[in-house]
Amino acid sequence: MTVAQEQTEHGAGGLSRRGLMGLAVGAGAAGLAIGAGTGISGGVALGRARERRIQDAAAAGDGIHQPGITTPVQDHLHFAAFDMMARTSRDDVASLLADWTYAATRMMQGLDVSATGAVGGSPEAPPDDTGEALGLPASNLTLTFGFGPSLFDDRFGLASQRPDGLERLPAFLGDDLDPERSDGDFCIQACADDPQVAVHAIRNLSRIAFGRARIRWSQLGFGRTSKTTSDQSTPRNLFGFKDGTANILADDAAALDENVWVPASEGPAWLAGGSYLVARRIAMLIETWDRTRLAEQDRVVGRDKAQGAPLSGGDEFAAPDFAATDAAGAPRIDARSHVRLAHPDTNGGIRLLRRGYNFVDGTTDLGRLNAGLFFLSFQRSPERYITVQRSLSTDAMGEYLKHVGSGLWSVPPAPAPGASIGAGLLGA
Ligand code: HEM
């Protein structure tokens, strides 16, 4: 059922009956919530005005690719992985994606999740929207949806549509993965310039999923570690180094076609124009790094800490010269430096679009910062990511890192107007 049909059948609230029951059951008041979702309340005028705004406004993104990939990287992240619940059906997957699409489209425009929203419904029912984003602007919120390998197992009749290579990532040297921070049937990447807006989005999408899917794990991120447009400054990661210098930029259509978008010739039809998203929760051994000499830090990265310039010379954006040697004949950019091993020259020309964030999740039992980089990258195939990470197996930076979470998802293209995310996959 399309979002438009959902709205016709279930009223201006736009959420399906099951979605609404999910919200209500969560609060122990199923019957009341259905009334709330149909917008029969004193707040209906507010709801209708907002509904007009959503119809007038253009959908976020370019209409071909989902937003949140080439969009200028926002300052904050809330990333969540979801699993479908036991005894759910393919219809539940379809209705969930329809409800998510509807609510996501609204929230990306700064609106409540439904027309009645946080305060426009019945006072006797729990509100559709949790309310903490009331009065806040959209803050460039983008919501990007991905489908994990497990969605294509035998539960929902989708196995024949599984893209080749959409498998759990293989084990890599240095992995110490926590299964409870890895994988998931779906992922949703919420990025916004206000952390409250990103958290509100994941919280409400989770509520809408009630009874159909549940959050498996989630990660907050602050401080982007990449740039996706030439006018964004290059930020710094928690090692204090500029990160994102050599990233693929939104205006480089040729590089995006070559490295990020899945061509029609390469995958199931439903994924054409989409991408693959890799998430790696990488713990950084901050205290060890902070006791390391500056010259050694530079050697490990292959760039200088001040400017982010390659150690072979030039400014930040100079191309690294891996053949350059010093007076003693040693390579200026170390053979085990991160930049050399991650560089396209070392990886058959492969480039990744990186979109990661810093995180600090309190302190460990040893009183150390539980900190790191929540690495996110978009690429045309899982193999391309695997190639680069295998190349990094001898990375000198590996001594200061531990990969503790991991996930791979296929990212469908943007839905056609009025259709749901993944409509091509589900035939909805
Ligand atoms: C905590 C972990 C990591 C840190 C602190 C880190 C840091 C950096 C820094 C400082 C740069 C140089 C500036 C730039 O071009 O962005 C860089 C480049 C890069 N990194 Fe990482 N990185 C990490 C993990 C990874 C992982 C897991 C991958 C992929 C498997 C990766 C792939 C790349 C790529 C492709 C480049 C660009 C190389 C080039 O074209 O010059 N990085 N990283």
Write the layout of secondary structure elements.
Layout: H1 3-10, H2 17-27, H3 30-37, H4 44-56, E1 76-84, H5 90-107, E2 142-147, E3 186-192, H6 195-208, E4 213-224, H7 253-259, E5 275-284, H8 286-290, H9 294-301, H10 338-342, E6 353-354, E7 357-363, E8 369-379, H11 382-391, E9 401-411, H12 423-426
Antiparallel strand pairs: 1-3, 1-4, 2-3, 4-7, 5-8, 5-9, 6-8, 7-8
Helix pairs in contact: 2-3, 5-6
Describe the structure.
The protein has 428 residues and is an alpha+beta fold. The chain has a domain at 73-89 and 130-283 and 408-426. It contains twelve helices and nine strands. It has helices at residues 3-10, 17-27, 30-37, 44-56, 90-107, 195-208, 253-259, 286-290, 294-301, 338-342, 382-391, 423-426; strands at residues 76-84, 142-147, 186-192, 213-224, 275-284, 353-354, 357-363, 369-379, 401-411. The longest helix is centred in the N-terminal third of the chain and has 18 residues, at 90-107. The chain is globular, with a radius of gyration of 23 Å. Mean pLDDT is 88; it is low at 1-14 and 16-59. Bound molecules: protoporphyrin IX containing FE. Protoporphyrin IX containing FE binds at residues 237, 239, 241-247, 280, 282, 284, 301, 303, 338-339, 342-344, 352, 373, 375, 388-389, 392, 401.
